[in-house]
Amino acid sequence: MKKISILGSTGSVGTQSLDVVRNLKKFEVVALSAGKNINLLESQIREFNPKFVCISSKNDAEFLSEKFRNVIFFHGIEGLQKIAKIDESEIVLNAVAGFTGIYASVSAIEAGKSLVLANKESIVAGAHFLMNLAKEKKCRILPIDSEHSAIWQCIDGKEKFLRRIILTASGGPFFGLGRENLKNVTKEQVIKHPTWKMGAKISVDSATMMNKGLEIIEAAHLFGVPASSIDVLIHPQSIVHSMVEFIDGNIISQMSVPDMKFPIQYALTYPERFNYSNGFLDLSHVCNLSFYNPSNETNRILNLCRESSKDNSLSCALNAINEVAVGAFLNKKISFLDIENIIFQGIDKFNPLKISSLSDIIECDRIARELANNLVILRM
What we know:
Blueprint: E1 2-7, H1 12-24, E2 27-34, H2 38-48, E3 52-55, H3 58-67, E4 72-75, H4 76-83, E5 91-94, H5 101-110, E6 114-117, H6 120-136, E7 141-143, H7 146-155, E8 162-169, H8 187-190, H9 200-208, H10 210-223, E9 230-234, E10 240-246, E11 251-255, H11 261-269, H12 296-308, H13 312-330, H14 336-349, H15 358-379
Parallel strand pairs: 1-2, 1-5, 2-3, 3-4, 5-6, 6-7, 8-9
Antiparallel strand pairs: 8-10, 10-11
């Protein structure tokens, strides 16, 4: 059995990853990490019996250590870095939410682990630094975002013939609505995604289309293509997860029902494939597969992300500013449309930095967050 660490185990992707592991019965879970959901983490420890566990709070770590005397506990960012590189684990699945995930990604790469990655912020913020480190350490990054898994499967070793990548997007809960209809939308309306079961932050990103912009940056670095060669189509049914077009005009797509367990299982079992017990796509029941170009307003966000992909510090700042703005919206401090305004104003005010280390990335993130927080205060 392969030994695996699942980081961010209590989040949406983390719990679904444990579902895959539970079904396949081919992995031993040696480590888990979580943020604040101590009750769910406790039940996961009882079921999977990991040797190592990390949780954000020191108090929570001490509380759990009294219950599980045979488990070694870590806490905080330092603990996350340690658990990502433990010798006992062969595979690190990083489903940690937000910028914090980059600490785990860097540690796993430095330790030569196989990195199964759901934390897109690692690549958006780390960009050239992270990909160069992975190349140096001969570490392959296996994506489990549905779009990047689709691209990976479609390219299938034919990178030299690639003309462009076509990312698909559901359009989120407000597809087709004009901006005048979005002035007073509520948090509850925004996070109610029409086709995917996701966490609150990524649901907001889907509604603003920033999620797709960040995926452009991620795809550019993962597959070594310029962001200008990555297009986006709105596909409300979320059946076609992405497409690639080759220089001979042929387009290949990857389709499945909108279920994150498909890309998770593919990454964990690559290059083999195993039976998926939760159902298959029946195309006879799919009435329509439709595709639309993004609106002019949406293209503003996508083009900003394409430009930011050219400079590591800009993409890092973009991620930080977006995280702050989304957090402020979820805490009901700003309106939905304020998120986009803060993103554009923040990037306009940000002065690019030279990135050559993880500490440079951390400093860049800090500066951008401070800038974004000031912009949030102006709108409160």
